[in-house]
Amino acid sequence: MEDQAGRVLVVDDDETVRDVVRRYLETAGFAVDLAGDGTAALAQFAERVPDLVVLDVMMPGLNGLEVCRRLRQTSQVPIVMLTALGEEENRIAGLQLGADDYVTKPFSPKELTLRVASVLRRARMPRPEPPTAELTDGNLRLQMTARQATLDGAVLPLTTREFDLLAFFLSHPGVAFSRADLLEKVWGWDFGDQSTVTVHVRRLREKIERDPAKPVRVATVWGVGYRYDRTQP
């Protein structure tokens, strides 16, 4: 059963939340490890690396953001963050640190289980060979095989998802995509919180636009979504 679904490490200081999530995940065929705080999570991770981590942000001591940061220093294991309603700054910080997705508390355990399965399915998909070794737009350059982006020769600190999103935009200049389109084509999800796309676009603009408040590359198409406009023909 573990081989079919995978092993999930659930990290939350609320025992009730851990127990409910564990039961739903196990019913769906996952093997589950539990940790009640950040220090225990890192120790559990070191002992047995899971296929995915469900990680609460607000925990005493070592919080979820710090745990995410430390995990990303050595691992690209998928991470789904649990954030409280209204904690947009934590959601943004988590995504910036490399989290793959987030679910807002209070949440449906069934939805979380579906989200875990979706993130894992995407993570396990073999990456297709890039159609080109390099994508460029003026001073912006993406080296696809090396998965490195530079702007004016300086390396951009892009997360995995930010790189994928930028590569998709550069591969389809001048085409308007809805957030649902991007969620499907870049994230590989047929459902999910579309504000995830909004947060990633915002973070991407902060890294590639001279004035993120007045973007010239990643344009907002009102009533539709986003479009990438090349700065050079």
From TrEMBL:
Residues 132-230 bind DNA. It comes from the Bacteria. This is DNA-binding response OmpR family regulator. Pfam families: Response_reg, Trans_reg_C. GO terms for biological process: regulation of DNA-templated transcription. Residues 7-120 form the Response regulatory domain. It comes from Amycolatopsis echigonensis. The modification 4-aspartylphosphate is found at residue 56. GO terms for molecular function: phosphorelay response regulator activity; transcription cis-regulatory region binding. Residues 132-230 form the OmpR/PhoB-type domain. Keywords: DNA-binding, Phosphoprotein, Transcription, Transcription regulation, Two-component regulatory system. CDD domains: REC_OmpR, trans_reg_C. PANTHER family: DNA-BINDING DUAL TRANSCRIPTIONAL REGULATOR OMPR, REGULATOR OF RPOS. GO terms for cellular component: cytosol; protein-DNA complex. The keyword Metal-binding does not apply. InterPro entries: CheY-like_superfamily (IPR011006), OmpR/PhoB-type_DNA-bd (IPR001867), Sig_transdc_resp-reg_receiver (IPR001789), WalR-like (IPR039420), WH-like_DNA-bd_sf (IPR036388).
